[in-house]
């Protein structure tokens, strides 16, 4: 799966270099960590997450930027720019619990080819 993520990430970074001057940024992977009753769990959402990057002044010698979430659809301000690259794993979401990857059965069915060769346990 890391191979797919790395490939997707690089294609999105190349796209971001094309739209750099617009103030928009396309985030290929969103990671959220939460404390649960079973311990800490990390959630991974692979897809297109649009952000606007805004200059927010300086703090000493360091410039500060503010990240504003725009949504999952390409902003209308980018109408004249090419569409972002598509990738077969966009839309995949899962969580990690220790060494286990936890994924909804419907999502697994759609992306089962990514997990070929891994042991699958249904709960």
UniProtKB/TrEMBL annotation:
Name of the molecule in the record: Uncharacterized protein
């Amino acid at each position: 799966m890391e191979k797919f993520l790395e490939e997707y990430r690089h294609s999105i970074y190349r796209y971001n270099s094309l739209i750099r001057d617009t103030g928009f940024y396309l985030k290929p992977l969103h990671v959220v960590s939460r404390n649960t009753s079973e311990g800490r769990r990390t959630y991974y959402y692979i897809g297109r997450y649009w952000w606007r990057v805004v200059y927010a002044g300086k703090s000493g010698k360091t410039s500060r930027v503010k990240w504003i979430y725009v949504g999952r659809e390409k902003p209308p301000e980018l109408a004249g720019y090419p569409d972002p690259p598509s990738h077969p794993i966009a839309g995949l979401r899962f969580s990690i619990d220790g060494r286990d990857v936890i994924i909804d059965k419907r999502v697994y069915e759609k992306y089962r080819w990514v997990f070929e060769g891994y042991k699958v346990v249904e709960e």
